[in-house]
Design brief:
It is built from 27 helices and 22 strands. Strands 16-17-15-18-19-20 form a 6-stranded mixed β-sheet, with helices on both faces. A 3-stranded parallel β-sheet has the order 3-4-5, with helices on both faces. It has a 3-stranded antiparallel β-sheet with strand order 8-10-9. One of its GO terms (biological process) is establishment of mitochondrion localization, microtubule-mediated.
Length: 718
């Protein structure tokens, strides 16, 4: 009542009404509800209910009443503790009231009680009558909730608790940006600015170091604050009652009241629409580059086991297992290289973005980059359907599912992406194998990430196993039963989809046997309008060829081109013949329409021309020309097929077959508009050949008509 009215009431009731202090009048800007309890008016059950809702409890005693002081330990503290868990005790404030009635202090009596009960935050002597320390009392009560001593400090041992030391050690390592074991002036200023929004003056920095030097010998080294010095400073803050300083630092780095990193800090909100993927952006790669450089102490562009262990000291656990070394590129000693380090982060972002956000939180990404959260490091790609519509993509990571029977060579394909031949692959332990591999691939001068996923053999693939950008179907050329599985999976899941597929003939260095399937792999690819099987082996002296990985990445980047290619190959030959027939009919119709006569005299020039066009002679000439054009076109198609096979297979020993590489589309506006021909992927020589015969037939027709017209004119003159 003295706090609210700022004067002592003449008549004091046994119990005051509940009081609410608004946030804008408190130093910490937190609303506070003050609930009074009177033993004379209220029951123990009502007290228990109030205790269960309280954040802090003030136990008031009279400094001039020994029985009142004894009751603190005989009744009130045991009553409170039996209603709360041992690990989550409420902070207590001891309040010695009526200090105006005595000339002495009760602190000598109270100190042993404070040492006995660690939940007691502080003791304040006050006088409600004189308004002494009344506002301070409630300030300390607020402070006990917002900046509790319990999680930070152990009064009995007079040192910080292990959880607090662990949290502050992580903060020190994050702030030590050059990883030299000390915080130099620039790092201390950055730390001061991000935690308290103000830098330290040079003299203030020197004063801090002098305080540390005065108390511990190894607190300052090379003009920088060591970890011991950093921990000593926070111990000093707590011992002097400045808990808020340490709590401000802890909360800035994401810790809650239990000294655990909060879910809001580790997992910021990130919305990912369907059919979209997640990638790291340029700022994230720059941060990871600086993190790698920070821990690559020997500057060999690879992280040794000790360097990697040092990097993960800011994590509560080791996030990467031994399989990571077989997922990304390593050097000859098996240490993760700079490229492998970035690749592993790219893989984590693509497969499990929430885990990536968590890992970036442990590294202090949002703090060191001064961003709102780790979500700013992530780029959410646009819907894949939009990429297909626009026929271009802005994505940098493409997923390829590698499918095949067991022991067909899928693991070899994955390891070949990392540049490992068969000799290096044999050294991989079974319990260290990985079902993923990721590395960079250059397509048309652009650096892209290709992610390979080894799909285990099964009768039917799940929806997650089908979801990818490109499919690699692998069969063993030395196993006659290997290809049948690839063919069956293709027909079940990918034959009618827009996902591009590539068949790889693995172990091509071994003797090739006939596959126990109705048709050969080459004929299967030709039938389903796919690229021919790609010969592949990792049994090489140097690193295996990466040609198939470039092809896979290109197909993933431009899936619409592959799909259109399949359609054009499927309908190319039939459409070409039909289009030539339409051309002839159109030319005949258009030419005949212009010479059409309105009479039936059979004597005028127009009638003579019409009769000539319908004559058996001209029809015979037309058929012979048309047949000659078709025969020549078929010969050219056969030649194109042979050339394509030679280019794709690298050999002309395969069966020569006609592969259509022409996609013709003809738009005809009947006799009311022009003829529009669009022929794609046709060479200039082919166009000239077809055009020559069409011109020849048209010229012969015109020449015959003009000849008959002149002949008729001469007859009339005679």
């Amino acid at each position: 009542m003295s706090l609210v009215s700022e004067e002592f009431p003449e008549e004091v009731p046994p119990r005051a009404e509940e009081i609410t202090i608004p946030a804008d009048v408190t130093p910490e800007r937190v609303p506070t509800h003050i609930v009074d309890y009177s033993e004379a008016e209220q029951s123990d059950e009502q007290l228990h209910q109030e205790i269960s809702q309280a954040n802090v409890i003030c136990i008031v005693y009279a400094v001039n009443n020994k029985h009142s002081i004894d009751k603190v330990t005989s009744r009130w503290i045991p009553l409170i503790n039996e209603r709360t868990d041992k690990d989550s005790r409420l902070p207590l404030i001891l309040v010695g009231n009526k200090s105006d009635l005595v000339e002495y202090s009760s602190m000598e009596t109270i100190l042993p009680i404070m040492n006995q009960y660690t939940e007691i935050e502080t003791c304040v002597e006050c006088s409600a009558k004189n308004l002494k320390n009344i506002s301070e009392l409630f300030y300390y009560a607020q402070k006990a909730v917002l900046h509790p001593t319990g999680p930070l400090y152990c009064p009995e041992e007079k040192e910080m608790k292990p959880a607090c030391v662990k949290a502050l050690t992580r903060i020190f390592k994050i702030s030590d940006q050059d990883n030299d074991g000390t915080l130099n002036d620039a790092e201390l200023n950055f730390f001061q600015r991000i935690c308290f929004n103000t830098p330290l003056a040079p003299q203030a920095l020197e004063d801090v170091k002098n305080v540390v030097r005065k108390h511990i010998s190894d607190g300052v080294a090379d003009s920088g604050l060591t970890l011991k010095g950093f921990l000593f400073l926070h111990t000093l803050f707590i011992q002097r009652g400045r808990h808020e300083t340490t709590w401000t630092v802890l909360r800035r780095f994401g810790y809650d009241d239990d000294l655990d990193l909060t879910p809001e800090y580790l997992f910021p909100l990130l919305k990912i629409p369907p059919d979209c993927t997640t990638e790291l952006n340029h700022h994230a790669y720059l941060f990871l580059q600086s993190t790698f450089d920070k821990h690559d102490l020997d500057r060999d562009c690879a992280l040794s086991p000790d360097e990697l262990k040092d990097l993960f000291k800011v994590f509560p656990y080791i996030p990467w297992g031994p399989d990571v070394n077989n997922t990304v590129c390593t050097n000859e000693r098996g240490w993760i290289t700079y490229q492998g380090f970035l690749s592993q982060w790219t893989l984590t972002t693509y497969l499990d973005v929430q885990r990536c956000l968590e890992y970036l939180g442990y590294l202090g990404y949002s703090i060191l980059t001064e961003q709102e959260s780790q979500a700013s490091a992530i780029t959410v790609t646009r819907d894949k359907k939009i990429d297909l519509q626009k026929k271009q993509t802005q994505r940098n990571v493409f997923r390829c599912n590698v499918i095949g029977v067991k022991n067909c060579g899928k693991s070899g394909v994955l390891q070949a992406l990392l540049g490992r031949n068969l000799t290096r692959q044999k050294k991989i332990r079974d319990d260290h194998k990985s079902y993923y591999a990721i590395n960079t691939v250059y397509v048309y001068g652009q650096e892209k990430y290709l992610l390979l996923h080894d799909i285990s053999e099964s009768e039917f693939l799940t929806e997650a196993e089908i979801l990818c950008d490109v499919v690699c179907l692998v069969y063993d050329v030395s196993n006659p039963k290997s290809f049948e599985y690839c063919a069956r999976i293709f027909k079940q899941h990918f034959m009618d989809s827009r996902i591009p597929c590539l068949i790889v003939a693995a172990k091509s260095d071994l003797h090739e046997v006939k596959q126990e399937y109705s048709i050969s792999p080459t004929d299967f690819c030709r039938k389903h309008k796919m690229p021919p099987p790609q010969a592949f082996t990792c049994n090489t002296t140097d690193a295996p060829s990466k040609d198939i990985f470039v092809k896979l990445t290109t197909m993933a980047m431009y899936p619409e081109d592959h799909y259109r290619d399949r359609l054009s190959r499927d309908t190319g030959n039939t459409d070409r013949i039909e289009n030539l027939r339409k051309i002839w009919v159109f030319l005949k119709t258009a030419f005949h329409a212009r010479l059409r006569c309105m009479c039936t005299c059979n004597r005028c020039t127009f009638c003579i021309c019409q009769n000539f066009l319908n004559s058996d002679l001209l029809q015979s000439v037309k058929n012979k020309i048309f047949t000659a054009v078709l025969n020549r076109l078929r010969a050219r198609v056969a030649e194109w097929g042979a050339v394509l096979l030679a280019d794709d297979e690298g050999s002309v020993t395969h069966q020569v077959h006609a592969v259509s590489s022409v996609e013709d589309s003809i738009f005809m506006e009947s006799s009311h508009g022009p003829l529009f021909l669009e022929a794609r992927h046709v060479t200039q020589a082919d166009l000239k050949s077809s055009t020559f015969w069409l011109r020849a037939s048209f010229g012969a027709t015109v020449f015959a008509v003009l000849g008959f017209a002149m002949y008729k004119a001469l007859l009339k003159q005679r």
